[in-house]
Fold this protein.
Amino acid sequence: MLEVKNLKAYIDVDAGVVKAVDDVSFSIKAGETVGIVGESGSGKSVLALSLMQLNPKPPVFYPQGEILFEGQNLLTMKESELRKIRGNKISMIFQDPMSSLNPIFRIEKQLIEAIRTHQDLSRKDAERKAIELLTDVGIPDPERRMRDYPHQFSGGMRQRVMIAIALACRPKLLIADEPTTALDVTIQAQILELLASIQKKYGTAIIIITHDLGVVAKLADRVMVMYSGRIVEEGSTADIFYRTSMPYTWSLLRSMPNIGSAGNERLVPIQGQPPNLITPPKGCNFNPRCLFAGPECLEVDPVLAERGNGHLAACVLSQREFNERKRQLEAVEREGVRG
Ligand SMILES: Nc1ncnc2c1ncn2[C@@H]1O[C@H](COP(=O)(O)OP(=O)(O)O)[C@@H](O)[C@H]1O
Ligand SMILES: [Mg+2]
């Protein structure tokens, strides 16, 4: 359904050109849920906005690539054509629902407008549809709540309203950029469950973007790990969590609490800072922070290569070498803790 080929999204700034998305390729099948994870600043949002062609142009420009949605290239499409796809076949929800809701209009008006932009319905039918959508996203007493203004909703409920608006057009693809980051843990879990139920009920493909591996573990079938504007590992959720191939992914996993753990494991923060995207390091972008980097890593910029069954990783180490280094390091660390 969606195929991104060798996409570059660069940004002109005073200091030079930020390579926010740097030669990224991937595809999304209908009905699939794909996670994109990576630290803050790795290019996730610029990538997501590229898919909707919503990055401000300038400063953002696209020196290379194709974004094929149902066979049509969004990169070369006219704005009038794009408008038919945006919020129609592809919808997006953001971290902060308040920035997308208009504070001076009732939810009812905003929802009905979203419905009638895409469907030729009478006001009465659109109203009925609005109630149905609010019910779908779990808003209790929707007939009454529709008459409220955004500020009368809690953060979690506002995010549900945003999801209802995003679903108003029955999109084939829903892009959710850090949709639960601003919410507390319980509400976060509820919103993730809601997204999963929507995926099941309507077969909507979902791209979920987050810095939180716990979120993708709960929701995604497949995961892409982003580092400094590139995809450095991609695979099934099990590949990423249990057959990790790229030292960055492993570092990211070690820096976060385990899913379902009692919270007593040792967390190891990733050393150093994400690289400067204007002048990335020579060789592998991750080499200055990588615990396994050798001389080769300062020279070779590894490409994303097949590790079996669609599991891809960008690292000069083979799976065996990586597992071996990991074992050695973990043994040393255990000694360190004991000593
Ligand atoms: N409009 C912009 N102008 C200048 N730099 C930007 C702009 N948008 C994003 N960036 C830069 O692009 C890089 C990627 O940002 P972003 O995609 O927002 O990261 P993420 O979503 O992974 O946290 C960062 O270095 C960020 O500072
Ligand atoms: Mg972001």
